[in-house]
Specification:
This protein is α/β, with parallel strands linked by helices and about 400 residues long. It has helices at about 10-20, 45-50, 100, 120-135, 180-190, 225-235, 265-275, 315-325, 345-350, 355-360, 365-370, 375-385; strands at about 30, 55-60, 80, 85-90, 105-110, 140, 195-200, 255-260, 280-285, 300-305. The strands form two sheets. It has a seven-stranded mixed beta sheet with strand order 3-4-2-1-5-6-7, sandwiched between helices. Strands 8-10-9 form a three-stranded antiparallel beta sheet.
Length: about 400
């Protein structure tokens, strides 16, 4: 799409600092931000708030840190930004403590999500909202686009027994909602009665992908370099729950997958038989510089999405797991716990939000049969989310 054909969108940050300045007068603000917390001119949220005279008293960082320098599953330590102390919300504390909240009148949340349940910023918002409610502090969520659109939803809904930091609320892997909409949903469905204000975007429509708007892409985490990555992530994040490489340590994380022992020819045949829509698997070899199989040549594939409107990332991820397990039962393995603050359940089970899906994969049940198991719950989720949607198609 040509640059001049893109849609002009004002994020919640843009709307807040340009159109609602009076809201921040004489208010002591806590800000949850990272490197992608920027306005339409790429000014950071800290700079934006300071430019209108807002009083920032504390900054909070999610997973990966306020500058996005930390890799996955690494605790984030205290830091500084622009002379402000930065408190970590990933590691020892998943939500702000009463001591961290001392002296704050308004907590502002401004993180760029990517439209997938596993992405931990949603959990940061949930834990922060609960902590703010207990402390009598209002939470303001500055809304941002769902990069992969707000229409398509896919996958099984997380079972109550499998709620976790990568599945904080009963929703599918691809939820098709913005952080503002999710905050409203969690407030209602989890009976959180604290004050909540959503600063909605202007100009965003549910049908729009991130490359169809004029906002610039800023990496929200170290392994989310581009929209292509976010497009496949709702399915390929499942690879984290296995001993397959998900491409971390390469320039194409989640688009690449493989292992030194993978049989590419037989794997390609199984994936072709799956008849997955909107995707092509190209044989590839890669050598991760860190993470799984660092320094070793992995044989595998790069995922090329040819039709993103038809592409089913979650089903594709399950198809990859099913094929790898069927071909390599002696080599393939599920990753053991701990993982994302869960010490008992298998990582794949909390990623899937269910034990039943894994068992069907292990039994090599037909892919369409597995997909059929979540359709009723997915339809119910579509009905549940309607009341919380803020934007038209």
């Amino acid at each position: 799409m040509r640059q001049d054909a893109r849609h002009t969108v004002e994020s919640g940050l843009d709307m807040a600092v340009r159109r609602r300045r009076k809201r921040f007068r004489d208010v002591r603000i806590g800000l949850i931000a990272h490197q992608a917390s920027v306005d339409c001119t790429l000014r950071h949220a800290v700079t934006c708030f300071e430019s209108i005279g807002a009083r920032l008293v504390a900054i909070f960082a999610p997973e990966h840190g306020v500058a996005g320098t930390e890799q996955d599953l690494r605790p984030v330590s205290r830091d500084t930004l622009g002379g402000h102390t930065v408190h970590s919300l990933y590691g020892e504390h998943l939500g702000p403590t009463p001591e961290m909240l001392d002296g704050i009148d308004l907590m502002v949340f401004d993180l760029q999500d990517i439209g997938s349940r596993y992405y931990t910023f949603i959990s940061t918002m949930f834990h922060t909202y609960r902590a703010c409610t207990e402390a009598g502090i209002e939470l303001m969520v500055l809304d941002r686009p769902n990069p992969i659109g707000g229409i398509s939803v896919e996958g099984n809904v997380v079972e109550p027994t499998h709620l976790s930091y990568v599945g904080i609320h009963p929703m599918p892997a691809r939820h098709g909602m913005t952080v503002g909409e999710l905050a409203s949903m969690m407030r209602q469905e989890r009976s959180i009665r604290g004050k909540l204000e959503i600063v909605a975007m202007r100009g965003w429509r549910r049908r729009l992908w991130y490359d169809q708007i004029r906002l610039q892409w800023v990496m929200p985490s170290p392994n989310m370099p581009a929209l292509d990555t976010a497009t496949v992530y709702p399915g390929m994040c499942l690879i984290e729950g296995t001993n397959l490489s998900e491409g971390r340590g390469t320039t194409r994380p989640f688009e690449l997958f493989g292992a030194p022992w993978l049989d590419q020819h037989r794997m390609r045949c199984l994936l072709r038989e799956a008849r997955l829509p909107g995707v092509v698997f190209r044989e590839a070899q890669f050598k991760p510089t860190f993470n799984k199989y660092a320094g070793q040549v992995c044989r595998g594939f790069q995922i090329h999405v040819t039709d993103r409107e038809r592409f089913k990332p979650y089903l594709t991820g399950i198809a990859v797991l099913r094929a790898a397990l069927a071909l390599h039962r002696a080599d393939f393995a599920w990753r053991p716990p701990p993982y994302e603050f869960e010490t008992q359940k298998l990582p794949i089970d909390i990623l899937l939000g269910s034990t039943h899906i894994r068992r069907r994969i292990e039994a090599e049940r037909p892919l369409r049969e597995i997909e059929a198991t979540w359709q009723c719950d997915l339809s119910a989720f579509r009905r549940r989310r309607r009341r919380f949607l803020l934007y038209d198609a």
